[in-house]
């Protein structure tokens, strides 16, 4: 089955024509190669220290050491895009709320807009003043590479690193690139071409395996909890307990656990058209040969790390876990 490029025309992004600000340098596609400079990728991007970044995160944000003044209660969710960022942030928010029933109604955790509830701190649309004025507890997200966590020194902030089976990531990423308004990514290839780009070097955040390896290695000794997306969706209570403990809270009682799970359960039948949140999409969209190529790459890059599921390395186990 061929999955082709289609422009998203409805939903929350209807009518959005630009993500840029005056003065932004917007890369243009090379007419000969069909790729975007400077790193010859199929999507628009910036290059920062040889790493690709989405155009919403310019260098003066990614490498700003004064962007955040960390607090003991802060937590940051760090992910390669399409790896469960939103779900993990929702879990963090609901766990905080379960333990802090007296939080005022104007606390950001009650804001229905994710960008204000749990800001993407390296996104250019949040000022340092806005971030500083947020009341505690605070939760942030980042898609920065590990080497660009310079805004946070080891031990200053808890970090939750979430990684997802790359066979599902490439499917979700394809929809993400093709359903958002034209201008941000401007990807115009087929799904089959997207698979090859993903295996070769990735999209606007570069190589999935390189990104996650660096977090799993954690050479600087950050306070990191490593989670995989499957345990947050297929064994949610297990993931909730891990996050709850990492945040330093006592065990959730039965009612609290039920409330957290209920508030963060995805309705897969009603996800927006650019979202692919259900594990196992790769069974539908990838051929067996393609899935085996992903397995081979993951065995080479991730097999040495404790906690990476065997379903990342075996197509048989990947398919079996869905039954």
What is the structure about, briefly put?
With 323 residues, this protein is an alpha/beta fold. The chain contains 13 helices and six strands.
In words, what does this structure look like?
The protein is of the alpha/beta class and about 325 residues long. It is about 35% helix and about 10% strand. It contains 13 helices and six strands. The protein has helices at about 60, 85-100, 115, 130, 165-180, 190-200, 210-215, 230-235, 235-245, 255-265, 280-285, 290-300, 315-320; strands at about 45-50, 50-55, 75-80, 140, 160-165, 225-230. The strands form two sheets. It has a four-stranded parallel β-sheet, with helices on both faces. The protein has a two-stranded antiparallel sheet with strand order 1-2. Strand 1 and strand 2 (about 50-55) form a beta hairpin. Helix 2 packs antiparallel against helix 10 (about 255-265). It is globular and about 60 Å long. The two termini are about 25 Å apart.
